[in-house]
Design a protein that fits this description.
single chain; alpha/beta; CBS-domain; four-stranded mixed beta sheet; globular; binds zinc ion
């Protein structure tokens, strides 16, 4: 992943810190020096934020491990200054499963709080008389971390879809109505709350502005994705199959690929090794290949060799989910042991448009 620092894997899941995290740390150092704190106390503040993000990572791990129970893999966990994101392969479509996955994150924060509870119970919150600036030190570090975990749990449970609380709301609604309607309601509630976040952000914590924008965009994208999926209901990979597609031998050069690209309609090519599929070559691969390898290089040096196969009878919603994770690629469709054809994301978009138009007619 670009723009992010890889941490050691946890439970087989890659964890990344986004580069913007450096801005957060820089901001904490500067504002606290500005407040007149010395370096020792500034270091405690930085340590506290790192401790907070360890808890955020455990929260995301809670989602990921709950999803794993239902056979859903997590691509990675990335930490941003506004929080963590666990990229699940897909959300469970069963409402009870979505409920468990959504609650698993905040549940981790509650467990952390309970572990630290003996320290919290003995801890006296400093009185805010304005005379002294509140600082983190070795005496209040762990109790404050415990208290912050309560806030993490509460904040995440605000029903601002696609935050955890919004997913809980969608899951509960899905038990009574179809998933598209449930998602639309949850997304509407989420966006309304997000607008409040943005307003509150202007008067208080600026992080709320970013979280609000993230929620507004996220809610819209997910509502759209669920709606698209619903248009594919009842269709299988066989229905979107392209049997007419361009292939390139792995020893052909990038120059050959450019000729094909400029010559015809195809933007994506199946690279073959003799009779066998070898990899996928997209327009992006070709452009990057010209720059990095030169036009005389063989296409196998730049093709993506991770091939994804689906069966003819696979529900098309699953193929769409695949493309939502990996846009601009193609998948191979098998009929028994025979390669029946390929599907690209353009294919599916066309089928969605056609079906949406058919429904509007009916
Ligand atoms: Zn969460």
């Amino acid at each position: 992943m670009k723009n992010a620092l890889a941490l050691p894997k946890i439970a087989g899941i890659s964890v990344y810190i986004h580069w913007t995290f450096a801005i957060l740390i820089g901001w904490i150092v500067l504002t606290n020096l500005w407040r007149g704190l010395d370096w020792l106390h500034v270091s405690w503040m930085v340590l506290f934020v790192l401790g907070l993000f360890v808890c955020v990572t455990l929260h995301e791990l809670g989602h990921a491990l709950a999803a794993r129970r239902y056979g859903i893999r997590t691509q990675d966990i990335t930490l941003y200054p506004i929080g963590g994101v666990a990229r699940l392969e897909r959300m469970p479509s069963k409402p009870t499963h979505e409920l468990v996955v959504a609650l698993a994150g905040p549940a981790v924060n509650i467990v952390i709080m309970l572990i630290l509870w003996p320290l919290i119970a003995d801890f006296e919150m400093p009185k805010e008389d304005g005379a002294e600036v509140f600082v983190i030190d070795q005496h209040n570090f762990l109790p404050m971390l415990g208290i912050v975990n309560v806030w993490l749990a509460i904040f995440n449970l605000i029903p601002a879809f696609p935050m955890d609380g919004g997913r809980v709301l969608r899951a509960l609604l899905s038990m009574r109505m179809d998933r598209v309607r449930a998602t639309e309601i949850a997304a509407f509630v989420g966006q309304a709350i997000a607008v409040l976040f943005v307003f509150a952000g202007f008067y208080g914590n600026p992080f709320l502005i970013f979280i609000g924008l993230f929620v507004i965009l996220g809610a819209r994208a997910e509502a759209e994705a669920v709606r698209s999926q619903s248009f594919l209901e009842g269709f299988t990979a066989g229905d979107a199959l392209m049997t007419n597609f361009q292939t390139l031998d792995k020893h052909h050069t990038i120059r050959d690929a450019v000729t094909l690209l400029l010559d015809g309609q195809a933007r994506t090519f199946l690279v073959v090794d003799g009779d066998l599929p070898y990899g996928v070559l997209t327009r992006d691969h070709i452009i990057r290949g010209i720059q990095s390898e030169g036009e005389g290089a063989p296409v196998h040096s730049v093709a993506d060799t991770r091939l994804h196969y689906f069966d003819m009878r696979t529900p098309l919603e699953e193929v769409l989910e695949h493309f939502q994770q990996r846009p601009g690629s193609i998948v191979l469709v098998r009929d028994g042991h025979r390669l029946a054809g390929i599907i690209d994301s353009e294919n599916i978009s066309e089928l969605i448009m056609v079906n949406a138009a058919r429904l509007r007619m009916a």
